[in-house]
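Bench notes, afternoon.
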Amino acid sequence: MKDLKNKVAVVTGAGSGIGRALAKALAARGCRLALSDVNEEGLAETAAGITGTPVRTYHLDVSDRDAIYAHAAEVVKDFGQVNLIINNAGVALSATVREMSDEDFAWIMDIDFWGVAHGTRAFLPHLIESGDGHVVNISSVFGLIGVPTQSAYNAAKFAVRGFTESLRQEMKLEKQPVAVSCVHPGGIRTNIANSARMSKPKSAEELRTSFDKLAMTTPEKAAETIVKGILKNESRILVGSDAWGIDAINRLLGSAYQPLVERFAGKSLYR
């Protein structure tokens, strides 16, 4: 996909953050947009900020499998085709394995992993039919390394990575006209930390403050990096200098990165 003009792009979680920035970046390149979110107010704000290209908005809970498949059919009916799906919607959870509830574990997996998996599978036949399709799944740097208190988030994002990398190989071996990219953002200045679930409410504000300090990249910069990666057909798109650094450490040290993370966590999380 060398040119995005007149392509139909689907973006989940478009009501804020990276999703909103992606919608604007894609619109600037001439994409027709199918934008979804559970936050209808935020979604309306995103759509209101886009001009010069067709935009449709859809209320969508990505944890609902049937709703995702119905959404795919509706988008094809509205636009006639789909060229690009960006499975961006996601949530965060901070809890240790011992403290985490089954409800919270299921909540994050249903959105962060199953939302991506079902979104990919629902749109894949339409992407193949378009003759020029692209799947973009948002993982995280936490899909590259494990971090204390992030076991559920790690599980979801590692799963997204494995699922997406496998899909890319399948599409190439089957000679299907669909490219596949996995995105690993570092700290992005979004509201994901503000909406995250925390096992210890007393530490929530401290954790959110720490996240804000580590968030090095704006959503707009993240979106530009992702769009450029799409146009270059990059299999792995790293977003932010911190993402590049974490990826390099993981490649160089392998599992030996863990003592470094333990040392950092010991100072910031286990005081």
